[in-house]
Each structure stands twice: as structure tokens, then as C-alpha cells.
């Protein structure tokens, strides 16, 4: 099993994690970690609502979701030596 390089505590919002994630791609956001090309690793993620939607079959989770707190992302990840146009393979 590949090494886990980004851990998420499911009981915390993304901004309360040991390494907070982000909500957009921007070059000024520092990388959470770096990897070498071809290196396999694991990242944990929260759902796009930052944990507002529970595994409870309750539609009110969606109805009352705070849409000002969405699109949370784990990372970002820096891949050493990549150039524009290089390809990245991601398995989910």
C-alpha cells in the first residue's frame, strides 16, 4: 500500500486539519508535500461540502448546506521536475 502523505481527520473541517487544505488552484498556495515522478502515494480528502453532507440519507443535509463553505481540496502536491504539458495519472 502506498504511503499516506495527506491525512484528514473526518471530525474536523478542512481549515482545522493538521495541514489545512485549500479551495482553489493558485500558484501562491504552498504545496503540502512534494513527490518524485513515478512515486505512488495516498491522500485523504473530505467531500466537496467540507463534511456537511452526512452518510444518513437525510436530504436536509443538501437543502441546508452552507454553499459559502464548499469545494474543499486536499493538498496541493508539488511533483518534482514536472513541466507544463506533462501528464499526471490519478487513481480514485
Spatial gap, N to C terminus:
14 Å
Low-confidence stretches: none
Strand neighbour order, sheet with most strands: 1-3
Largest sheet: 2 strands, parallel
Number of E-type strands: 4
CA radius of gyration: 15 Å
Estimated structural class: mainly beta
Helix % is under 10%
Can you characterise this structure?
Strands 1-3 form a two-stranded parallel sheet. Strands 2-4 form a two-stranded parallel sheet. The chain has 1 helix and 4 strands, in the order E-E-E-H-E. It is mostly beta strands and 92 residues long. It has one helix at residues 60-63, and strands at residues 3-6, 33-35, 41-43, 77-79.
Helix and strand layout, with pairings?
Layout: E1 3-6, E2 33-35, E3 41-43, H1 60-63, E4 77-79
Parallel strand pairs: 1-3, 2-4
Features:
92 residues; mainly beta; two-stranded parallel sheet; two-stranded parallel ribbon; 1 helix
Amino acid at each position: 500500500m502506498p504511503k499516506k502523505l495527506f491525512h484528514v481527520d473526518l471530525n474536523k473541517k478542512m481549515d482545522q486539519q493538521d495541514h489545512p487544505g485549500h479551495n482553489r488552484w493558485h500558484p501562491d498556495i504552498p504545496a503540502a508535500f512534494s513527490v518524485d515522478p513515478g512515486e505512488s502515494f495516498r491522500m485523504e480528502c473530505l467531500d466537496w461540502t467540507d463534511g456537511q453532507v452526512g452518510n444518513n440519507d437525510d436530504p436536509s443535509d443538501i437543502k441546508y448546506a452552507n454553499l459559502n463553505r464548499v469545494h474543499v481540496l486536499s493538498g496541493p502536491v508539488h511533483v518534482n521536475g514536472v513541466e507544463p504539458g506533462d501528464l499526471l495519472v490519478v487513481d480514485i
